[in-house]
Design brief:
The chain is mainly beta. It is 8% helix and 31% strand. The strands form 3 sheets. The chain has a 5-stranded antiparallel sheet with strand order 3-4-11-9-6, with no helix packed on it. It has a 4-stranded antiparallel sheet with strand order 8-7-5-10, with no helix packed on it.
Length: 172
C-alpha cells in the first residue's frame, strides 16, 4: 500500500490493487457519518467508488420581521430547494449561501471576534465566515457591498450545500 491510496482525511481506509473490500467500504460509510458528509467519491487506477448518504437538511424556521408602521412581510417558503443560487434578491436582501457541505464558523478561532455581526457594513470580497470541509478551512466572502441584517447559521454547526448563511441589504 502506498500513501497516494490513503483517504485525505488521514483515516486508515485504503485502496490496494484498485479494490475496496467490504470492511473498507464500511469504514468509508462510518467516516461519512462521523464527519457528517453527504457524499464521497474516490477514483484510483481505474477503480471508482461513489457513496451518497441521504442526509436530511436541518429545519429552518424563518422569523418574520415587522417593519415600523407596516404589515408583516409574507413568510419565506420553507420548501425552497437547497439548490437555490448562492445569492438571490428577495425582499431587497442578497443571500449568501454555503457553497459546500461543512461546518460553519463565524470567527477564525474560538477566542477571536466574529468576522461580521448583524448591523456591520461589508465590502465586496470581505470574509464573512469559514466553512470547514474535509479539514480544509474555506473563507466565504461577500459578493455585494451592504449591511448584514441576518445570520442564519449557528457557529460550529454543520451546514448543507445551498443553505443560507447571511442576509445582506445591498448598499444604495
Amino acid at each position: 500500500m502506498n500513501d497516494k491510496n490513503k483517504l485525505p482525511a488521514g483515516d486508515d481506509v485504503s485502496v490496494e490493487g484498485g479494490k475496496l473490500d467490504y470492511e473498507e467500504i464500511r469504514k468509508v460509510i462510518a467516516l461519512l457519518e462521523e464527519k457528517n458528509l453527504s457524499a464521497f467519491e474516490l477514483e484510483v487506477e481505474g477503480f471508482k467508488i461513489k457513496i451518497v448518504r441521504n442526509v436530511p437538511a436541518p429545519a429552518a424556521v424563518p422569523v418574520p420581521v415587522v417593519p415600523a408602521g407596516g404589515a408583516a412581510p409574507s413568510p419565506v417558503d420553507a420548501a425552497t430547494p437547497a439548490q437555490a443560487p448562492a445569492t438571490e434578491a428577495v425582499e431587497g436582501l442578497e443571500f449568501v449561501a454555503s457553497p459546500m457541505v461543512g461546518t460553519f464558523y463565524r470567527a477564525p478561532d474560538p477566542t477571536a471576534p466574529a468576522f461580521v455581526d448583524i448591523g456591520d457594513t461589508v465590502k465586496k470580497g470581505q470574509t464573512l465566515c469559514i466553512v470547514e470541509a474535509m479539514k480544509l478551512m474555506n473563507e466565504i466572502e461577500s459578493e455585494v457591498e451592504g449591511t448584514v441584517v441576518e445570520v442564519y447559521a449557528e457557529n460550529a454547526k454543520p451546514v448543507e450545500f445551498g443553505q443560507k448563511l447571511f442576509g445582506i441589504k445591498p448598499a444604495s
